[in-house]
Amino acid sequence: MTASPPPGFGVIGNELTIGGQRVSQLARIAGGTPFYAYDRGAVSARIAALRAALPAGVALRYSLKANPMAALLAHMAPLVDGFDAASASELRAGLAAGMAPAALSIAGPGKSPADILSAVAAGALVVVESLAEVGRVAQAGNASGLRPRVLVRVNPEAEIQGAGLRMGGGARPFGIDADQVPGVLAAIAAHDLDYQGLHCFWGSQALDAERIARAFAVVGQTLLGLASPRPPRQIIIGGGFGIPYTPTSAPLDLARAGAAVAETAGLLGDHLPGVSLGLELGRFLVGEAGVYVCAIRESKRSRGNLFLVTDGGLHHNQAATGNFGQVVRRPYPLVIATRMGEPVSERATITGCLCTPLDVFAEALAIPAAAEGDLVAIFQSGAYGASASPSAFLGHPPAVELLV
Ligand SMILES: *Cc1c(COP(=O)(O)O)cnc(C)c1O
């Protein structure tokens, strides 16, 4: 048995290629290991496949927090219809990448007055998540002499099942309970804010298209119930499309997920003619396009077990060790990237270089014989990698990021 790379990656000789380039060459370009490489062609292809599966006219928005690398954002700005920021700094990154200010939004609980002012001054949409925030947005409007554009983030009543991470339904710090929304809409009118519509983010990392369909149906019904007396001009129905992080999980059925969006778009469009619908996605657009590459620094045995200690670690890629946003620890798929096609001959535990038992990329994994200097490629690392890891932990330098 030999390890083969996931779809979209190639092999030249015994080396993995990313965006057509051999990993060892990328390591030289990066100035060494560890590094991240994001394949721009893979991002473009993913967006094109998604567009093909979605009904025409549904806006595709990218959640910057999944991966805010500047060059990646500049690549994506012309390919998507909007960027969703979670902070003023992400908002500025979106502006710098060339996204039109009106196509930017800022969301999240507990936005600071400075975050809100920055968004209002830029002309971005503010996704309000509480009644108190409406007042802060109005203040920012007064300070900047602009009429703030707002969306209301709705927390549906019922918990929505089927997402790896549930972020809507039941008691949540995110959004506004559906039954409180009418009061918030009245406050928006009283402050004469520019009400643009509704937003619902029900969850993340869903791989089952049938469950996504059920979630969108709940969202559609909930938002329809809040559409009068002031009809929304735009509605963001969430996203939630997941990617397979383990060899045993099947990828999302994109055709079925696209059909689910079409059903909800049909329902909302029938009752709210002219409403524009948007989908916001992070990991689905960039997660599978990214690889984290580190080098084996040491090969050692302990009580008969082989340990390959790399120069990487959870300080760069915490999620890859299964310690970020996961209930059950599931490390990401990886290969010995300089031993592709070679027969599997041993089992090894592959660790990072941090002095914590959490810093493990793979346990007792069957691999070809590998030695110091061989490169390890960890897939599914394009989202929630560099920016979502505790980079200050132990004080090692950050990983270089390449867009290839
Ligand atoms: C994080 C986030 C997303 C993106 O989630 P993914 O799982 O990366 O697709 C979308 N919308 C909101 C409001 C978010 O906070």
Q: What is this structure, in a nutshell?
A:
With 404 residues, the chain is an alpha/beta fold. The chain has helices at residues 23-30, 40-53, 70-76, 88-96, 113-122, 131-144, 181-190, 209-224, 254-271, 283-286; strands at 10-12, 15-18, 21-22, 35-38, 59-63, 82-85, 104-106, 125-128, 149-155, 165-166, 176-177, 194-199, 203-204, 234-236, 276-281, 290-302, 305-310, 334-336, 344-351, 360-368, 375-378, 400-403.
Question: How is this structure best described in words?
Answer:
This protein has helices at residues 23-30, 40-53, 70-76, 88-96, 113-122, 131-144, 181-190, 209-224, 254-271, 283-286; strands at residues 10-12, 15-18, 21-22, 35-38, 59-63, 82-85, 104-106, 125-128, 149-155, 165-166, 176-177, 194-199, 203-204, 234-236, 276-281, 290-302, 305-310, 334-336, 344-351, 360-368, 375-378, 400-403. The radius of gyration is 22 Å and the shape is elongated. It has 404 residues and is of the alpha/beta class. The protein starts with 9 loop residues before the first strand and ends with a strand. The strands form 4 sheets. Strands 4, 16, 17, 18, 19, 20, 21 and 22 form an 8-stranded mixed sheet that branches. Helix 6 (131-144) runs parallel beside helix 7 and helix 8 runs parallel beside helix 9 (254-271). The model has no long low-confidence stretch (mean pLDDT 94).
